[in-house]
Amino acid sequence: MPSRRPEPAAPRTLGDWLHWAESQYARSGAALGQIAAEAHDEALYLLLHALQLPLDSSPDVLSRPLTPTEAAAVRTLFRRRLEDRVPAAYLTRETWLGGLRFHVDERVIIPRSYFVELIPQLPDLLPGVKVRRAVDVCTGSGCLAILLARQFPRAQIDALDLSPDALAVARLNRDAHRLQSRIALHPSDVFDAVPPVPYDIILSNPPYEPSAHVDRQAAEFRAEPRLAHDGGPDGLAIIRKLLAQARERLAPHGIVVIEVGGLRRAISREFRALAPEWLPTADGTDCVCLFRAARLT
């Protein structure tokens, strides 16, 4: 009679639970990319958050045993993440960009942007310019407006969004970072409700996914507001409007920088006359384009 394989031991330490969680991710087929690209990283983040441990905890923390109450809470957390497909950032009500914590919830897209690495490079793209006014179009949670305000401490920042819900979250983040005097929030469809002023920088991570692609998104991405994803039939609807309205809103030395996802070929084709410049990113995606005021006039 064949011997029965012993049942695997129940997870005991944080390291055990991390191994267990990784196996659950593999079985579930959960989509990643909203706060981490790897199951290990997202699972560890959720575990540390659930146990109220610092995100920069040393590896020694993996040997920490969980109490029965903590273990039950961890199981519930991963059931919501992997069975209900609730995005991790909506479970923790936070995300981190540029070393800063931001509140997020179901009212806004979970921010992930190449501008985290590119905003510190913007002064090099405007040599000799003292940036006094910048705008974040389609601001969502307001995180990029806040990063702009920190990069340019003498600048006034406008943050625009069509969604009142998104602006409510942006207000929470602006106030948490004590930037009420420097960041003005505006309910506006691109620039429709904002009078023309000469910006040194117009920055945007707009909706750029083609509608048909949005229809096929994984459950985790469908949990985010569709308004923040859907860029119209070809993904370019908001970008076209932004560039058309930018003409009368840029200082003579000003720049427009837009994150465009997989639309590089379409942008290069449709806006060839505007001479888009592509900014290099660490992973080689290079999906942020720059337009200069002289070409938009």
Describe the fold and architecture:
The protein has 297 residues and is α/β, with parallel strands linked by helices. It contains 13 helices and 9 strands. The strands form 2 sheets. It has a 7-stranded mixed beta sheet with strand order 5-4-3-6-7-9-8, sandwiched between helices. Strands 1-2 form a two-stranded antiparallel sheet.
In short:
The chain is α/β, with parallel strands linked by helices and 297 residues long. It is built from 13 helices and 9 strands. It folds into 2 domains: 14-92, no CATH class; 95-296, 3-Layer(aba) Sandwich (Rossmann fold).
Corresponding CATH superfamily of the largest domain: Vaccinia Virus protein VP39
Shape verdict: elongated
Total tally of structural domains = 2
Mean pLDDT comes to: 95
Which fold name corresponds to the CATH topology of the largest domain? Rossmann fold
Number of helices: 13
Named CATH architecture of the largest domain:
3-Layer(aba) Sandwich
- Output the CATH class name of the largest domain: Alpha Beta
Number of strands: 9
Strand fraction equals 15-25%
Cα-atom Rg, whole angstroms? Answer: 22 Å
Helix and strand string, N-terminal first?
A: HHHHEEHHEHEHEEHHHEHEEH
Low-pLDDT parts are none
GO molecular function, one term: nucleic acid binding
GO cellular component, one term: cytosol
Domain Methyltransferase small: 130-219
Protein name: 50S ribosomal protein L3 N(5)-glutamine methyltransferase
Would you spell out the secondary-structure blueprint of this structure?
Elements lengths: L13 H15 L10 H12 L17 H15 L5 H5 L2 E3 L2 E3 L12 H4 L3 H4 L7 E5 L5 H9 L4 E6 L2 H13 L6 E5 L11 E6 L6 H5 L3 H4 L14 H10 L3 E10 L4 H7 L6 E3 L8 E5 H4 L1
Parallel strand pairs: 3-4, 3-6, 4-5, 6-7
Antiparallel strand pairs: 1-2, 7-9, 8-9
Helix pairs in contact: 1-2
